[in-house]
Amino acid sequence: MTDECIEKVEILLVEDKPDDAELTRRALKKHHFINHVFWVKDGAEALDFLYGRGSFQDRAGVAPRLILLDFKLPKVDGIGVLKAIKSDEHLKHVPVVMLTSSREERDLMEAYRLGVNSYIVKPVEFEAFVRTVSDIGFYWVLTNKVPDC
Predict the structure, then answer these.
(1) Which domain holds residue 39?
(2) What is the DSSP string of 105-122?
(3) Quick check: 149 pLDDT over 70?
(4) Highest mean pLDDT among 24-28, 77-81, 103-107, 138-142
(5) The model's pTM
(6) Rounded mean pLDDT of 48-63?
(7) Cα(51)–Cα(102) distance, rounded to whole angstroms?
(8) How many domains does the chain have?
(9) What is the CATH number of the domain that holds 68?
(10) 148 falls within a domain
(11) In a domain, 144, yes or no
(12) Tens digit of pLDDT for each residue in 95-131?
């Protein structure tokens, strides 16, 4: 991987609840991933980020290395964002991890039907949450092999 690719490595966190976003960011910071995290608060903002629209025009053509996606979001829900990602030739290779509080079987089945890479129910206990998020970061950002940029 070139140095240019390393600079593009980032995690897009799509989470509407500030407390959950802060917990996720703290968990990633604990394991030195925080410099690569960008947080958006709804599905429409996530799509703007991914497609370099609106206030994200300068990002055109730069895909994150990992997307942590909540299921229930304002404006465009997680399923709508997942559909857009997995149907786009330039984005479908980006791993998407649903990090959600939804334990509903139909949500799980729909996410996998659309191509989610992993579906993780957020642990309630803080240390378990930190461990889970850290494991996600280590696997998808450091361990998983992705195509060169």
Answers:
(1) 3-136
(2) HHHHHHHHHTT-SEEEEP
(3) no
(4) 77-81
(5) 0.84
(6) 85
(7) 27
(8) 1
(9) 3.40.50.2300
(10) no
(11) no
(12) 999 988 888 999 999 999 999 998 988 766 777 777 7
How many residues can be counted in the chain? 149
Q: Which two tokens stand for residue 126?
A: 């803080």
Q: Look at residue 62 and tell me if it is in a domain.
A: yes
Q: Tell me, what amino acid is at 42?
A: D
Burial class (CB in 10 A: 0-12, 13-18, 19+), 47: buried
Contact yes or no for 69/101 (Cβ under 8 A): no
How many angstroms separate the CA atoms of 93 and 40, rounded? Answer: 20
Residue 49 falls within a domain, yes or no? yes
What b-and-e string marks burial along 11-41, b requiring 16 or more CB atoms within 10 Å of the CB?
bbbbbbeeebbebbbebbeebebeebbebbb
pLDDT at 1 over 50: no
